[in-house]
Amino acid sequence: KIGFGLMNEAVKRMSDYNKISLWVLKGNDKAIHFYERYGFRFDGAEKKVLIGTEQTELRMVFERKTND
């Protein structure tokens, strides 16, 4: 519940942006599920990062629905 409240506040503060992206570690299923429930989707981008050992990060994107 705290995480969802923090995400709501962050997205609200970025209201000028129609698209928000973030990076999540591959295999971090708990985080991935949280972001998917919020509406983020994978866009296919990935990168390698060194966090003690080499890890893979996957990019997720949230797109606001516009009233065009």
Secondary-structure blueprint:
Blueprint: H1 2-13, E1 19-25, H2 29-38, E2 41-51, E3 53-63
Antiparallel strand pairs: 1-3, 2-3
Q: CA-to-CA gap between the ends? A: 32 Å
The run of helices and strands is HEHEE
Continuous helix count: 2
Count all strands and give the number. 3
Report what the structure shows.
By secondary structure, the chain is of the alpha+beta class. It contains 2 helices and 3 strands, in the order αβαββ. It has helices at residues 2-13, 29-38; strands spanning 19-25, 41-51, 53-63. The longest helix is centred in the first third of the chain and has 12 residues, at 2-13. The protein starts with a helix and ends in a 5-residue tail after the last strand.
